User: Which sequence fits this backbone?
């Protein structure tokens, strides 16, 4: 259902304001080791190694601007909204290990990219947003473009590296889209104290 944001622009949920998969993969891939399977990789937000365990899916979704926890994702799986696979657990006969069987523990669900993206769509459509997704919705911004602009500004102005984006310490400039009904606005970050001329 269309609604109006704080700038008076008509908004629908057809455009997404959380960190979309293609932007996420592009911007996380520049982090050294993000594509290497390492211990704990199934539980981290910045890994591009899949499948991830439930904790890793939660961490990635939170990094991408969505609010959730492990119980919520397990509930989505139980309701059939998403379909992660059960990880394998070791089965023992009391004397020795005899094999593996699908785990019944929710935290051991195995989440593919498609599973995480399906959960992201559900969370977005049902308004489980964090404050930065709200910020992007209000400004009609593409989350990934905001992250990229922030990283460029951090590098340019010697502010260190950030996985996501944060505005304190910067002057934030949002350039409206020529046609806000179909395009995203663009954001730039300038050093704090920068004087701008309004046009």
Assistant:
């Amino acid at each position: 259902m269309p609604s109006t944001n704080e700038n008076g622009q008509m908004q629908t949920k057809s455009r997404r304001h959380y960190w979309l998969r293609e932007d996420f993969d592009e911007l996380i891939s520049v982090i050294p080791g993000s594509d290497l399977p390492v211990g704990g990789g199934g539980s981290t937000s910045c890994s591009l190694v899949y499948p991830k365990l439930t904790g890793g899916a939660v961490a990635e979704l939170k990094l991408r601007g969505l609010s959730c926890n492990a119980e919520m994702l397990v509930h989505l799986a139980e309701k059939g909204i998403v379909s992660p696979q059960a990880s394998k657990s070791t089965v023992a006969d009391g004397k020795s290990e005899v094999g593996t069987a699908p785990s019944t523990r929710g935290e051991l669900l195995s989440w593919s990219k498609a599973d995480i993206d399906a959960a992201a769509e559900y969370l977005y459509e049902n308004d489980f947003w964090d404050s930065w997704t709200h910020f992007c919705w209000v400004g009609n911004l593409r989350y990934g473009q905001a992250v990229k602009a922030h990283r460029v500004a951090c590098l340019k102005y010697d502010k260190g590296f950030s996985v996501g984006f944060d505005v304190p310490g910067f002057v934030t400039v949002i350039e409206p889209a020529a046609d806000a009904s179909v395009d995203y606005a663009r954001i730039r970050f300038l050093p704090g104290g920068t004087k701008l001329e309004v046009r």
Remarks:
- Residues 143-156 form the longest helix (14 residues).
